[in-house]
Amino acid sequence: MDVAAAGDAPFIPADSNVGKIRCAPGGVARNIAENLARLGRHSHLISVVGDDVFGQSVKELTRSSGVNVSAVLCLKGCRTSTYLSLHGPNGDMAVAVNDMGILEQLGPELLVPHEALLAGAAAVVLDTNLTASAIEWLLLRGSKVNGFVDGVSVNKCQKVVPYLAHIQTLKLNALEAQALTGLQVSNADDGCVAALSLHQRGVRRVVISLGAQGVVWCDADAQTGHLPAKGVNVISTSGAGDALLAGIVYGSLANWSFSASVEFGRRCAEFTLSSPYSNHSGLSVDAV
Question: N or C: which end of the chain has fewer CB within 10 A?
Answer without folding.
Answer: C
